[in-house]
Design brief:
Layout lengths: L21 E6 L7 E6 L18 E8 L10 E6 L3 H5 L5 E3 L3 E3 L2 E4 L5 E7 L5 E6 L4 E4 L1 E4 L7 E9 L34
Parallel strand pairs: 3-12
Antiparallel strand pairs: 1-2, 3-8, 4-7, 4-9, 5-6, 9-11, 10-12
Length: 196
């Protein structure tokens, strides 16, 4: 339904919402973590009690995304997320939900014309990673270990995209015949290599 700015008392009001609908009220402000709550809109008689949302302090990571040659990369897609979120670190474009940890998704932004970015509302006291994607480069090396605190709620990072390469694979059976509709997955790995 669109954002509404709060007034001098931290209050907002929005109208013309469909009666009976379930909506999510989300609040964000610079220097704080965002929060939200789902509501069912019901008819009431008399005075309406306001919904009170409390925002916890948050921090800011700003930085620059660089190409392998050191130039800033405009419009690079940049992600910031807790370092411990292994599944998000593997693929920061996907959000994950779990019964034990709730929803896990990276905070995403785009770089300006100089490759600069800023992400606000991040958790304090949690080691964070930043990474970036932009064609024709390979995904950036993750910049991890950034921890924001109440006394130091801002940090700067440099995120470096990597030069890209291509892999050509021919899948064959033991007799050398091509295997049709086989699936190939390429991921980062370690150990002895075959070929260049």
């Amino acid at each position: 339904y669109g954002p509404v700015a709060t007034d001098g008392d931290g209050r907002f009001e929005t109208a013309l919402l469909p009666l009976g609908a379930i909506v999510t009220v989300t609040a964000r402000a610079r220097g704080f973590r965002s929060t939200g709550t789902p509501l069912r809109l019901l008819a009431v008689d008399g005075a309406r009690a306001p919904i009170e949302l409390r925002l916890e302090p948050g921090g800011t990571v700003r930085g620059r995304v660089l190409a392998p040659d050191g130039r800033g990369v405009p419009d690079a897609e940049t992600f910031v997320f807790p370092e411990a979120w292994a599944e998000v670190r593997e693929n920061p474009r996907v959000s994950y939900s779990g019964t034990d940890a709730g929803k896990r998704e990276a905070t995403v932004t785009r770089c300006d014309a100089e490759g600069r970015f800023e992400v606000d509302g991040l958790p304090l006291g949690v080691p964070l990673c930043a990474t970036a994607l932009h064609r024709p480069f390979a995904r950036a090396t993750d910049a991890c270990g950034v921890t924001l605190t109440e006394s130091a709620p801002e940090a700067s990072v440099t995120v470096r995209l990597r030069a890209s390469a291509a892999v050509v694979v021919r899948l064959r059976d033991p007799e050398g015949r091509p295997i049709v509709e086989g699936q190939i997955e390429v991921g980062e790995g370690f150990g002895e290599t075959r070929g260049q």
